[in-house]
Specification:
The chain is about 30% helix and about 20% strand. It has about 280 residues and is an alpha/beta fold. Strands 1, 2, 3, 4, 5, 6, 7, 8, 9 and 10 form a 10-stranded mixed beta sheet that branches.
Amino acid sequence: MPANIDEPSFERPRDLVAITWDGKELPHRLVCFDQTPAFDLLTIDYTGAAPMPTLPIANHHFRSLKTEGKGQTFSIVFDFLERSDRVYRYVGILDDDIVLKVSDINYLLHIAGCFDLDSFAPSLGEDGFHSHHHTLNQESRLLHPVPWVEVMMPFYKVELFKMAAPFFRHSISSWGIDKYVVPLMQKLSDRPRTAVIDGILATHVRPIRSSGKVHSNGLTPFQEMNIVRERCIEYVEERHPELLGTKWFQETFDILGPTARLRRKIKSLLRRRAPSSWQWKMP
């Protein structure tokens, strides 16, 4: 081959995974470092008091700031992305009570890239703590489409995450960001590909703790979620009134009567049991 012919070079997309830490226990003790991470790791100490831990990963970043809830963690990640000189494809934000392997995260990001997903998460096992039926693992599937992914361990395209950032301040707990804000931004940016990846099974080992909290703003997570919903509806009314009254608008913001809600729930349960094929082909 002639020496002056340049061979094409292929650069692997860079991804960022943020994992919270209590600053006391062994850092990321529930994550098995069984493989070299194919992502950058951002450790977030939510006590604001711990020094940077030493971990077996080359591209390790650290932030320490006392926070009350995951909405503030989202803001820390957004600030990191804005200040970073690196261009990331996906960003994942994991709680510190998730049992997972590094190889799981590597494969998760691989599958997301194969299907060009915009928002996704690992599936959950029924033996762990969970709140939403659509996040549970479905056997004999690689992944299944869902309306939204929970804030427990979401992954987003970075552009999508940045679009949602102005709403983070409305929810210290992050409640409502997953169910309302991200789907709204997906609609506006034509990034609808949302899935739970059944090829990866994670376990949530701690009971849901945030529901009973009252944050420094005087609001519970449920109240914050309602405020986020109202802000999203106002956003649509002011900037995208053409979406008002559409089926998407009614389903996303729960503007349905009790009969319609029951019908949607039954339809969702039947879809879970049906041997349907994946609805999106690889790009």
